[in-house]
Amino acid sequence: MLFNSTRNKNQTVKFSDAVLNCFPQDGGVYVPAEIEDLRRWISYINKNTSFTSIAGTLTSAMIKDEFSPIICETIATNAFTFEPVVKQLDDNLFIMELYHGQTGDFREFGISYLCSYLETTFQLTGKKALFLDYTDGLLGKLMAKSLRGKKNIKAVLVYQEGTVQGLEEQDFIWNGGNILPIEMSLPPEQIKSLIDQIFQDSDFVQENNLTIANTSNVCRLLSQVSFFPYSFSRIKDKVDGDIYYALDAGNYGTLMAGLYSWRFALPVSGFFLPASPNLFIDSDGNPIIKDTISNQNQNASSMNPANLERLDSFFEQNKLMMRNFVHPSPVTMQTMMEATKELYKKYGIIADPETARAFAAVKNNLTDLIDEESAIVLVDYNHPAFAKEYCQNVLGITPKLPNYIEQFQTNVKLNKKTISTIEELKEKIKSLNS
What we know:
Elements: E1 2-5, E2 8-14, H1 15-20, E3 30-32, H2 39-44, H3 51-63, H4 69-79, E4 85-88, E5 93-97, H5 107-125, E6 129-134, H6 138-147, E7 153-160, E8 179-184, H7 188-199, H8 202-207, E9 210-211, H9 218-223, H10 227-235, E10 243-246, H11 253-263, E11 270-274, E12 279-281, E13 287-289, H12 306-315, H13 319-323, E14 326-329, H14 333-347, H15 353-363, H16 366-369, E15 375-380, H17 388-395, H18 403-406, H19 422-431
């Protein structure tokens, strides 16, 4: 499968190039230039098809021109020792829980897949990569788990001073691990700006094999495509009508993954999500995407709203198609809290704000778009204990964080000198290649 920039469809690259060189020179982000029709395979999968099998098949569809099916299966098997959990709540409502990994955070799927892809393929090609990312703590926890034992990947993780969490002694470069954590005595936006400046220095990026682990990297995005055929395989024998998904907006990565799964020929009738300043409804009822590329001179950025630009590119200003497929709906604090209470009272689901907002968006459209034969799959991203204060305030219940997840919440003191300039950051990066 080839990939092209959202701003130049004539510039195509292989998947491996899109992953390692995340930012096209024109300032866009990478998207699939072509998508294979997997209709026959989709009709074959069922409740006995494993998540790793589904992920392996989709991996092969993406990179079969570069790596064999055996390698593709190995990537998926090594990435996913965990899988989503799909539950039926009533005749027409299902929930897909994505927090059953080691960290309780759905982004573990994307980080684990990205690291597995790089490590597995680098064993064949002899390449190496160095992640450079800002983190407020979450990405660091996920990277710590996924990079342990890897031989060809390292990471420079940049934190605001005093925000390091979830790392263990074994993870640090100076103890033989794969992570160099760096604290900077700057506000987060300034740190992000310095990282962007580094990625705009193409010579420095190539000399140090730099790439990123956030959702600008198309590998992270495509790992989430597996959620949708997997959930379909679990409910296909229980549903006679259309299938819709309800999900919180987030950074729109899961929505994009769902749209790509539809392009693979998965039977999806639409997506419900809460409206936001970036995706909303105009006075005529049309979904509107905030203009992310009005300034075509804007350079690629490790912090740009990559998935909004992908979403805009996907529909290519086809308002009719988008109107019939993507249904953002205004959700207030009151309706979110009511949805939280209903999920718990009817189904025993302790919902965080993201899950409650998605459910509220569905309820706003029940009479207009969804008939009695249709099914809704509610996407539940993270362990509800991450929103324990909200759950306590709304439900009077404080969900407990499992011990295996709690270890990733520990604050860490590095006892290392903080830095404050781009020159110091570059020297830290270069030291890993010396």
